[in-house]
Design a protein that fits this description.
TIM Barrel, single chain, 13 helices, eight-stranded parallel β-barrel, alpha/beta
């Protein structure tokens, strides 16, 4: 994977790109995207040659009240097929299943009955035992499976090693480094990717990266992960995502040299759908997200500040965060 001879003029054929605009972006508006928007994202992913689209969550209706949330929180077959039909394209569809928040035994149908191709199991470090069971269940049902260990910047090395030892023997084909708080820098990303790859060496499992932009490093961290061997990378259109957002897909595709990727459909989507959406939803780098990123804190405090009196008072927000740590 790593090379010292002009790697910027070549490409990594095994690298796969996943779009999580609807899933991660839906955390801003309770997944209440209209069909036109979701269909436009799907069409852009197909036209641009992106490998996977994460269309939403497989969330529990007992944990999340359907009256409050939009369809993309639950991703029933009827809801997904309303957008993609039988998905006659090469684009693979994924949904995220959160440990502790998904009725995975009953709500995830066998692959033969679903338009989905992949289940992305997401968990915090203390939920690894349930995640292992979820991975086995999804694999037994015929899906590609990956595991996203969230908030990895808060996890001790010994815990990471133990989790990777368990995942090494699991049916997960990919394990993703997830910078939930947007607090990692490229050096830390390199160390984590190297750690994951070493732990999974010889299994055929791949390492992925899911970066958040709290310190405006999501793109840089994604590049660093690719350089050091990550072959599954996430992005969102115009960086749409909770808080400071994610690695912008337009930057990612603009960097990669694989001729199968076409960037024009992404710019068309941004012009027609994402720029108008920015007038309604608040996402992207800001002083508040920068502060929580530097402090390795969950962005919920920054989200609340930007929706309230502290939106234009970053110094007061900084003092509040420091006092609360």
């Amino acid at each position: 994977m790593e090379t010292s001879s002009a790697p910027w003029v070549t490409y990594v054929p095994e690298l796969k790109v996943l779009d999580c605009t609807v899933r991660d972006g839906g955390l801003i508006n309770d997944h209440r995207f209209g069909d036109d928007f979701v269909r436009a994202v799907y069409d852009a992913c197909v036209a641009s040659g992106i490998d996977y689209m994460e269309i939403g969550y497989k969330a529990s209706r007992t944990v999340f009240a359907p009256a409050r949330y939009g369809d993309w929180k639950f991703c029933t077959e009827e809801q997904m097929r309303r957008i993609v039909g039988d998905n006659p394209s090469d684009l693979k569809l994924a949904a995220m299943a959160d440990a502790g928040k998904t009725d995975w035994r009953t709500d995830i149908a066998p692959k033969s009955q679903s338009v989905l191709d992949m289940i992305r199991v997401a968990c915090y470090i203390h939920q690894i035992p349930e995640a292992i069971d979820m991975i086995a269940d999804a694999a037994d049902k015929g899906y590609e499976v990956c595991c996203n260990i969230m908030a990895i910047s808060t996890v001790q090395d010994a815990e990471i090693d133990q989790a990777l030892e368990l995942l090494r023997d699991s049916a997960a084909g990919t394990v993703v480094v997830v910078d939930s708080f947007g607090s990692l820098n490229p050096e830390q990303v390199r160390l984590l990717v190297d750690r994951y790859r070493k732990a999974l060496d010889g299994t055929g499992k791949e390492v992925g990266i899911h970066a958040h932009n709290n310190m405006q490093l999501a793109f840089a961290n994604t590049i660093e992960a690719i350089i050091h061997g990550a072959t599954r990378v996430d992005g969102t259109m115009a960086g749409l995502g909770r808080g400071a957002g994610n690695c912008p897909m337009e930057l990612l595709l603009g960097l990669l040299r694989n001729p199968k990727f076409r960037i024009r459909p992404v710019w068309e989507l941004i012009q027609n759908h994402l720029l108008p959406l920015q007038r309604e939803l608040d996402w992207g780098p800001s002083p508040q997200y920068n502060i929580t990123g530097q402090m390795n804190q969950h962005p919920r405090a920054a989200i609340e500040a930007r929706a309230g009196d502290l939106k234009d008072r970053p110094l007061e927000f900084y003092d509040k965060i420091v006092a609360d740590i």
